[in-house]
Amino acid sequence: MSTQPLPVERPAGGASPPQPSLLSKKRRKLVSDPFGDNNPITVQVLGICSALAITTQMRTAGVMAIAVVFVVATSNVVIALIRKSIPERIRMIVQLMVVASLVVLVDQVLKAYAYEMSRQLSVYIGLIITNCIVMGRLEAFALRNGAGDSFLDGIGNGVGYGAILMVVAFFRELFGSGTLFGWQIVPQVFYDLGYRNNGVMLTPAAAMFVIGILIWIHRSRKPKLIDIS
Amino acid sequence: MELVNIFIRAAFIENMVLAYFLGMCSFLAVSKSVKTATGLGLAVIFMLSVTAPLNWAVNEYLLTKGSFGRISPALADVDLTFLQFIVFIAVIASMVQLLEMIMERYFPPLYTALGIFLPLITVNCAILGGSLFMVERELDLAESAVFGFGSGFGFFLAIVALAAIREKLRYSNIPAPLRGLGIAFIITGLMGLAFMSFAGISL
Where are the alpha helices (DSSP H) in B59-196? Predict the structure, then answer.
């Protein structure tokens, strides 16, 4: 369990594989795994709470995704750096303090530069603190690994989470309000012919259906993930 | 009467799980059998009823603008509301830890029954969400205590109901990839739609 140096290159968004010469296969796996076999939402079922409330629009979902990537990656690094000096019994409180400070940072930045957005997200920015993805990664990964690996793990999980948020938001905004990122997509002609927006897509229940169906699709393509019980 | 209204609203109309979908992680993970679901539900009721009024007091006497004015007029301008998240989660986490230690020492059977759920509760969005909603809606001390208890009760009802449904589901023929998690999501969505029929009721 040696402390590994921070990677020099910051993987842009985590989507493109980082430089192979710098990063071993194992490290690349840390970033790519959360997209498929180990997705935080559809496989680990973490962080559902905020996933549902803010996915009625792609714009709010995007801001949320960026905030979560930032918090997961940074808190993973911080905890990995101080992991050896945290007493076992109060580790939850230490982790929560680190996460909460980062979330306050995000919240204040949003309030200062994007006040409308921060009003729309209301309590859900605060709820990133209790987003199980953050705590889950800290408990499962950062407490046992070095800062560099933890950073990659955080980026991978944050982006994997954000990707699902965007997919859910895509369907909900398209069918619920006929727009994407606030731009009108469904042409006016359709409305004139009697097409209506589907109001159910804007209720939280629809988010449950969309995620349920995503899980269904994901698992039928990867049969080893099927729940036997 | 106002308090009864808040209780009914928190438990049914604005149910923490089925209307706001908070506390989903543990809601889905621990709803495989009615027995464990009851355990988690009771723990959540307890924590919400304790932390909501406690956080109300902390917020009112330490964080809101002007609360230090009581000590000295020079400090009347201090506004610490930006620390809300950190302070609330610290209160919740230390309450959970305290509860865990007290139970381990004095009620070992209860500890073995609820023990594994306690760390889960710290990161249960419903608990922090309860405190944040309480601030957003500007409740007073008695109201926030009732609100906390009501929300906890709503969570308890919802998780026991889902667990009961999932126990019955074992006998139905669901497509294999949808089994377990997928169908649980869809059931929760349907329960949420059903709970929407409470909307608009007030006493």
Answer: 84-106, 108-114, 117-122, 125-136, 141-169, 181-195
Domain limits of chain A?
42-168
Which of A92, A101, A110 would best serve as a mutation to test chain B binding (most B beta carbons within 10 A)? A92
Phi first, then psi: give them for residue B23, nearest 5 degrees. Answer: 75, 25
Residues of B in contact with A48 (CB under 8 A): 21, 24-25, 28
Whole-number Å distance between alpha carbons of B34 and B108: 22
For residue range A19-68, list pLDDT tens digits in order: 444 556 666 666 666 666 667 666 666 667 666 778 888 888 888 889 88
ipTM exceeding 0.85?
no
Which chain A residues contact residue B186 at CB under 8 A?
208-209, 212-213
Consecutive 10-residue runs of chain A (229 residues): their mean pLDDT?
41 42 62 67 68 80 89 90 82 84 89 85 80 80 84 86 86 83 78 78 82 83 65
Distances from the Cα of B156 to the Cαs of A185, B26, B41, B125, B134, in angstroms?
42, 12, 4, 14, 19
Residue A143 DSSP class: T
- pLDDT in the model for residue B153: 92
∠ CA A187-A190-A193, rounded to 5°: 150
pLDDT tens, position by position, B121-176: 777 778 888 888 888 888 888 888 999 999 999 999 999 999 999 888 888 888 87
3-class DSSP assignment, residue B183 = helix
